[in-house]
Amino acid sequence: MLQELEGAGKPARVLLVTDDPRTAVLIGEMLRAGWTTGLVVSHTGSVADATHELLDHGATCALIDLAGEPSPIPALEQLCATVSHIPIIAISDRSDEEFDVTAVRAGAQDVLVMSELNASVLVRSVRHAVVRKRSEAALARQALHDSLTSLPNRALFFDRLRVALDRSRRTGRAVVVMFLDVDAFKTINDTLGHSAGDLVLTVLADRFSRLLRPMDTVARFGGDEFTFVFEGLDSEPETALLAERIRASAALPLAFAEEQLSISVSIGVTIVTDPKTPLEDAIRHADTAMYRAKDLGGARFERFDAAPAAPPMPDADLEPALRQALARSELRVHYQPRVSLNGGTGLVGFEALVRWEHPERGLMEPVDFIPVAEESGLIVPIGDWVLEQALDQVERWRQSRPEVTISVNLSGRQLQDAGLLDRVTTRMRRGGHDPSVLCLEVSEEALAADPEAASRQLAALNEMGITLAIDDFGAGDSSAADLQQMPVHILKIDRTLVSRLTAGGADSADVSAAVELGHRLGLCVVAEGVETDEQLAQLRDLGCDGAQGFLFSQPMPQEGVCSLLGNR
Ligand code: C2E
Ligand code: CA
Ligand code: CA
Asked: Is 372 left (phi over 0), alpha (psi -120 to 50) or beta?
């Protein structure tokens, strides 16, 4: 047992910290009397000396005599914090339970009373302290490392990044964050089995670790994702060179069974120069760049560049301009296809998305003006106009494709508007539209604002035969019970959830839960923001009914839809 304390053959080394030479001699003798294998006892007179000694030479265990210490607990605390890997036993001159508890909280493994000491008590205490410290260390290691690759895990990565960003706040030097994802990892797992997948991950972990300097971090972030933190890279070319080395090291051939696997990876790089950048943003930027690398075909790295911010325009200016936009015919409607995943990927309809062709700012996205429209109430006439345009268009398209439908967004403000039903009824009647052609989308957030009023309005629209969808599901926190109250037919899963579907399938739990919930309530489940083939494959696996996203098409003007339908 005692030999285990220092590995076979090596003596155990115990450091005594006491300013009383008599105590040092006494304890040294007790230790030697109780010890059966090799033992080296050394002695220092102060906590400061002990700290240096332990940092420089280590020890199996340290015993600190607190009797002569003017402020025993702070001294103990400081020592334990500085050499947290070495078990420390405190020795006090009186039996005092309160003091013992405080000493243990300060980091001591045990507290012994000088007058009660003998050889066997002392040796047993040392032995237990060492064993306990080892298992603590093993647990701490497990909690912060990935068991497959032994790399730091996500939690430790966050910690390292936080420390790096803090340091950059002081030094002013940039921090580089990289986000790496293995291309087509799911195919490797699916075709060659999980042991092949595991091998790929361990080999990559090993290759990446070898490339790095001791101060750098590579972590297994989850699934087939690795993340890196670098400090002190001084130039962009240096960063690019490193990303390229990492990419190339992953691409080296790898033997599995009889097969030669060729692996490629996509890497997103962000250079954090603004020390105020939040940690989450740094990771998100690297992740975004990684996705761009994937979109460009994978097997490459891409640098994140923040889109230049639009020239700031106070909302005060925006509102009167928006008021005139309708009259000046500056609004446009773009349409994004929605496809069915139930057998093939057939086109089932389009979603109408408004844009504003601002005379000075160019084509503006809804995020930049819908909030102003909502606040000012302008969303009511704008929404009405979008509805009219969309219904007119869909009737034209249905001449060649009678099955296509049109979805139009309703904001919370519109839902609270008492005149909504009248206006929709009038529109439908005037155009002679079949209500089943129209789907109205209401966001989870808009529903949550006033669930009772919302559910009354929706019930009336439902009566009319209009299809209803819950939009952006998963972005808010509505419950299954809330959903059950609503007379809706379609559940659209928010694109932030879909974007987390990675090649390894690590983060599919939220989407899977949403699909399950939707189906349990008898709803058709549609995923929005589908951008990659991997996401599509996973959505199919999860049983999702429909999809929308850049993978199929960006929103496009009406002319685009015509040529899309004409070409088919
Ligand atoms: P939404 O209803 O969730 O619309 C989908 C948004 O996702 C659209 O943004 C679309 O361009 C974008 N999108 C579609 N596929 C992808 C993809 O694969 N990746 C990514 N990253 N994005 C994708 P858009 O057009 O900017 O519209 C933003 C929001 O503005 C809409 O979100 C909707 O809430 C609101 N909105 C748009 N038009 C109208 C309207 O006529 N009336 C009302 N009340 N709100 C509207
Ligand atoms: Ca929508
Ligand atoms: Ca949406």
From this structure: alpha
